[in-house]
Amino acid sequence: MTVEMDAALAGALVGAVLGMLGAYVIDLRKAERHRQDRDRERERDRRRQRASIATALLQDCRRLEFELREVYGEERPSQIALTRPSLFYDALRSVVGSLAPESVQPVAEFFRRVDHLYAAVKLLRDLGGGQIKSTPQREYEIRSHAAFVLQTLPGAFGALRNEGGIVPGPLGWNSTTFPALPAIPAPIFDDAIIRSQQKE
């Protein structure tokens, strides 16, 4: 009888151990699936963040290209009131390193050249007491600086597009003539709506 009990007890123990082992394996698989899901979600978040950064920097590129082409095409760019605009890059400079490694260099180089151009123009203006003395050499220097910046734009543009950056369509400008003012949209925010209704 004890042999039968020992065999039954051994069978029960083996069954319990196998059950626990099975549950453990299932828990391990479940934990691995959760870890993989978290990793995929983190990667999606990183891609979204890089795409948002890239989209903001593309807005800077768009604005700068317009201005730099004006400088490059101008006969006397020293007479343009050229001041460095506020850029998304100023706030995002520290996170450019979160872009893919192959994107960092072309983006950083473009904005480094932008900073160099505007710093040079500011220095020339400061040295001239608020104005830049127009000479053929000075005009050439400013236009050349603009060209050097524009030469790096395609690389930065491609890198930012590869990061998922979005370039919206052209922004339309409506024209108007005096004395008619341009039309504006209906109020959006509550305080503006209330104020608009009070005026009526």
Descriptive labels:
mainly alpha, 200 residues, 5 helices, single chain
Number of domains: 1
H/I helix tally: 5
What distance separates the N and C termini? 101 Å
Q: Which word captures the global form?
A: elongated
Q: pLDDT average, as an integer?
A: 87
H and E string:
HHHHH
Percent in strands: under 5%
Structural class: mainly alpha
Low-confidence stretches: none
> What oligomeric state do these chains adopt?
single chain
Please tally the β strands and state the result.
0
Largest sheet: none
C-alpha Rg (nearest Å): 32 Å
Helix content class:
over 70%
Explain this structure to me?
The protein has 200 residues and is mostly helical. It has one domain (2-168). Helices cover 70% and strands 0% of the residues. The chain is built from five helices and no strands. It has helices at 2-73, 88-92, 101-127, 136-162, 190-199. α1 packs antiparallel against α4 (136-162) and α3 (101-127) runs antiparallel to α4 (136-162). It is elongated, with a radius of gyration of 32 Å. The N and C termini lie far apart (101 Å). 17% of the residues are buried. The mean pLDDT is 87.
